[in-house]
Amino acid sequence: MKLWITTALALGLASAAAAQNDCAAGKTITDGTLTVATGNPAYYPWVMDDNPESKAGFEAAVAYAVANEMGFADEQVTWVRTSFDQSIQPGAKDFDINLQQFSITEDREKMVDFSDPYYSSAMAVLTTQKVVDAGATATADSLKTLIWGADANTTAVPMLGALIQPDKDPMLYGDNADVTAALQAGQIDAALFDLPTALYLSGVVVEGGTLLGQFPAERTDNPDQFGILMEEDSALKPCVNAALAALKDSGKLAAIEAEWLQEATSVPMIE
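The structure corresponding to this sequence follows.
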């Protein structure tokens, strides 16, 4: 009986793999190969050490997981480099799929195709180590007491009211550059940004910058959503969407996100 069950399971898996291979057959630039694009360079935590072949980093891991679901072995994945601006322009592409933190927008969808979302961006609290050393923590009570800054022209202001409800009205600025300058000067304690932007600002722009915590994406009304970019009218799109759906249903996509965007970045979740 055990042998029969094992054999049946193996046949079932083989049939599923065959179906996935059939979906992508003849739809890639190079037959039997999935060509994946990333940035030049590609940054942490999306790709670790600018080495997507290592499968380390959120988008590198997602790319291999999608490829595997579509029936491609790891060695059948080839990487190329593209700029962000070049990728979103209309026309023929030198890649099958591209993961580079592309937000899905109506304007972009007029020029390229996007998969279903593979990531909904959380909102993160950008602050400085000085504020953390003074006692700020990733708790609702602590966040209320901070002096907040926000770009008056963005959704950050209503988000502050919905997510944090600070004791004092936030200080409003003309743009995000002014917000980060105020944070650097110690005029404010913290500001809200989407997690990818906050990671960049804390690592590159704000000296002594750090992330105090992140809110679950579902607590935001309209979270920024990233999609896998493809050439317009790509025949591969249904295959990519089917692969993403399988990864979501199995919980693997959530596990990849937890590993690379929560554990690897050490940004705690604010409940």
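The longest strand covers residues 112-120.
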